[in-house]
Amino acid sequence: MLIDEKALRAFAEKEFQDAGEVTIERLGAGVHGAGYLITAGTGEGSRSYVVKGLFPEGLGHDYPSDRAAVFLLDLDEYNNLPQHARAIDVLALKGDGSVISVGGGKEYYLLMEQVEGTDYFSDLRAFSGKDRLDGRDKARITAMAGYLAGIHAVKKESRSLYWRKVRDIIGHGECLMGVFDTYPDGIMSYEEMAEIEKLCVDWRARLKRKEHRLCQVHGDFHPGNIWFRGDDPSDFVLLDRSRGAWGDSADDITALCTNYIFFSAWKHGDLRGAYREGLELFFADYDRLAKDHELPEVLAPF
What is the crossing angle of helices 190-207 and 159-171, to 10°? Predict the structure, then answer.
């Protein structure tokens, strides 16, 4: 349901306290969403407003935050264009069934709890002085593999969400194309970047057939977002899950495992020692737990 008419009526009656009667009428639907007409009768005559809702699947509108972003941009920009219908506010439906105003902000902030620990980058830096992993190193890798196998076991059926994840990996501002756009000139040529981008578009066609792989993901499981808090290898906390709740397990696995290769190449020029052992141990443990035998076929673009 796009609009909770009961909650919307309660909001309108509170907003128009002098209203004698409030009516709500569905106007119709388009490709993106549907509109509702609110008419409030007052002593000065009737006031009419349109409330628009977006369909919650496809077109990049899958998560509530997507739909909020669309409407907040609308509120900022509708009134800047001559002869455009005016935007008045952005409304939010809360979990308790009430409707509140969230419009008017010019910047937004996330308030979250404080956590303590040491990020996994510290472990990776320490690997440079080791030929072999010690017991704690192995236990932490096994714990991370087990954690990911556990969350990846939660599946969801949605072609739209899987296709979105594949699309985002290539074109999102925080993923391949966006990261390339942060590179200083001279690191790679634009042509080299474009060749990689085009190869990933070919991967998109292959992955579209694999919507059955959609599962719960962290979405940014890199070492800076994994903080260990003590000697217990399972005692870690994660940060910054910010690219959606659903995707391909390959996304989380490559976000972590690419770093074993990167740090080893940076320190040694190739994959060796503790870094190679860590990479092999992670894949062995994850394969044993997740039994995702299709994984090697889909890793490359992630």
Answer: 170
Residue 1, pLDDT > 60, answer: no
Q: Which long-range contacts (CB under 8 A, 24 or more apart) does 174-180 make?
A: 174/243, 175/243, 176/200, 176/301
The residue with tokens 């106007």 is 27
- How do residues 216-241 score in pLDDT, each as one tens digit? 999 999 999 999 998 899 999 999 99
Q: Is 144 in contact with 295 (CB distance < 8 Å)?
A: no
pTM exceeding the 0.85 threshold for the entire prediction: yes
Q: What is the dihedral angle through the alpha carbons of 195, 197, 198, 199, rounded to the nearest 10 degrees? A: 90
Q: What pLDDT sits at residue 74? A: 93
Residue reference for tokens 């919507």 = 211
Q: Which residues contact 292 (CB under 8 A, 6 or more apart)?
A: 152, 249, 286
CB burial of 129-157 (b: ≥16 within 10 Å; e: otherwise) equals eeeebeeebbebbbbbbbbbbebbeeeee
Length of the chain: 302
State the Cα angle at 235 between 259 and 131, rounded to 5°: 40
